Please model this.
Amino acid sequence: MTGNSIKKTLPGMARFMILILIILILPTNVALQLYIQHQNQKQNSEEIFWQLEQLIRNNIYDLEREKRDFSQKCIQSAKMAAYFVEHNPGYITDLEHTKELAEKLDVDEIHFIDPQGEIYAGTHPRYYGFTFRDGEQMQFFLSMLEDTSLELCREITPNTAEGKMMEYAAVWMEDKSGIVQIGMEPKRLLKQMEEKSLKKVVSEIPSGLMGYLHIINTNTGKIEASTVPGMNGLDIHEELKTEDKIKAPASGHYRYNGRKFCVYTKYYGQYLLVRSFVSAYPLRSAVQSTLLVFLYILGASVAVLWIIMWYMKVKLAGNLTAIVGELKKIEGGDLTNLTIHTGILEFDELVQYINALLKSIRLNWDKMDHVIENSRVPVGVFEYNHFYKKTFMNNRILKILGISDADENNDALSNRIRKKLEEAENHPVDAGKSLYEYDRNGETVFARIEKFTDEQSTTWCVTDVSQWWNEINRLREQSSRDSLTLLYNRRGFTERLEALFADPGAIGSGVMIMLDADGLKGINDMYGHHMGDVYLRQIGRQIEFSGEKRFISARMGGDEFSAFLYGYASKEEAEKVLRDFEAHRGEVFMDPEMKHILGTVEFSVGYAFYPEDGTDYHVLMHISDERMYEEKKKRKGRRSREE
Model:
């Protein structure tokens, strides 16, 4: 007999198709991922440019309005001062009254100027004698000497004498006897200008995808704002070694300081908006994505091959072999032999013979009882035949359920067994695993009860698993380790403290530490909970106190940790260890796969010393916990002030 084996042909074809699939998918995935990354960068840049244009436009409009309002306020204040001194001319020559008037008008300076443009009085005597022809600042108002209808306000300009920014306004008195000039320091306006500066605008623009944003003044060639602080004020002419006007480069890849960037640009007024991305980022991301796809395909391929091999072995080859064997037995006339159920359409004609044989065998209870009772499998079997209204049971079912068969007929005993099984099924321990509990003559017993029902009968298979179940519960009760950090959990920590504090002489000087990880929520939000777990594991390693043999450390839950150090000769010796431990704050926290720095390890910590703060570990934990939260509030306060 010749031909190819189906067990070898189908798996071989599957492996070939999977290989072709990998060869086609992986390069396509890299190219597709790169295209998507660049499209995302382009779209992100366009959105950033649009947001930036809106912010710049709105800021310019708001600042112009603020400047107009302030100029009007200056003119109005000058008019009010002119009106007041016209009706109270004595204020002009009285310095104290003039200063009082300036304070009431909420202005910084008042100057009285004669029709020839000379300052002859005001709040600042050092300016007396200056004229409109002295200096650029005063010359702005020179035209007022020729036109008495003018009311002028000079925009913000530095006061060279006092070194501060001022805005000046001047009006003629109604009787044209002189000019009143006021000066006001635009603190609010200056603050507005600072808040709406390009640097501030750029700092408010969200950045992502490993991108950088720069705003270049095409007139000066300088970077006026950048998300890279070190590039603010950088002269592009010097960098490019050219004096030509900066031109927007076409979108593409460019090298700068040895690194390759993907650049997108747009003009807005006199500004060139530049968005740059590290070119290696999308390639690295695409390779990582493709590697994951490869792993998924590889995993799926292994599963598919395993299923095919299993199907070949169990469903096809196995069933064919079994059917051949069954047919040989039937051919020999032994119709009572056990057969199989294949579930394959092509074998349906054989299935009817197999089912007939199975039903015939189940009717032979005496033989089944003999087989089960003489086997070493500790399984109790109880079967109730609905058609014949008869039961089958072995002795083990009675022992497992704790039922005595003395002076009882078969029906009564059967009813007691069924009642006991139904009673147990009403007390599930783990229904998914068919585990139940019941009372066996005052003893709580755990059993696995599996129930099988067909058109002829219902069968219960019962196994006493009390020893196994109790062992599982005992192991659970003894579990005292945190699965994430491998430190003790809260229960394990308190159990060991109980044992330690039962013998105070072994403690010496000690210190209880309560620690709360700072920034865990930020790590979870920014990089995902898997990186939050890495962050907690790093803190867990730090709290293990390398080199210290006398300590108990635990993760109490969430981002809280605790440790108790003991066996020191003095409190000072314990404090030295604490100082070394606190030095871990600020250590670099890195992505273990990418080796990128994601931040620093930060935590708030509180201490309580034994025996100075208490000799009961509950008290020490309470004190250190309160001190930890006090420090956490202070650290939050410092961060808020720094921000």
